[in-house]
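Sample pair:
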Amino acid sequence: MYTLIWTAGFTRSAGKFIERHCELRQKFAAILRDLENDPFQPHLKYHHLRGKLKGFQAVSITHSYRITLTVLITEKEIILLDVGSHDEVYRKDSG
């Protein structure tokens, strides 16, 4: 089991995300539960990022929405960085 660490930026973006996409509230909560259990489950579509976000990873909520994160495997921690549309989370500097 992994520990989810909510950064201040993730907490803000998660609140805004749920306000704008209330229909995804349950899906978002389910994705967070699945991350805690095993971030490498195939349906999460865990992948490493490139470019200016190299060193970070992402998982999918839906085809259009992502959560960016950092997984510290040795510590069994997942640092949640951002949530939003594909373009929103990939154009920002995470952290």
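The beta strands are 3-6, 47-48, 57-60, 65-72, 77-85.
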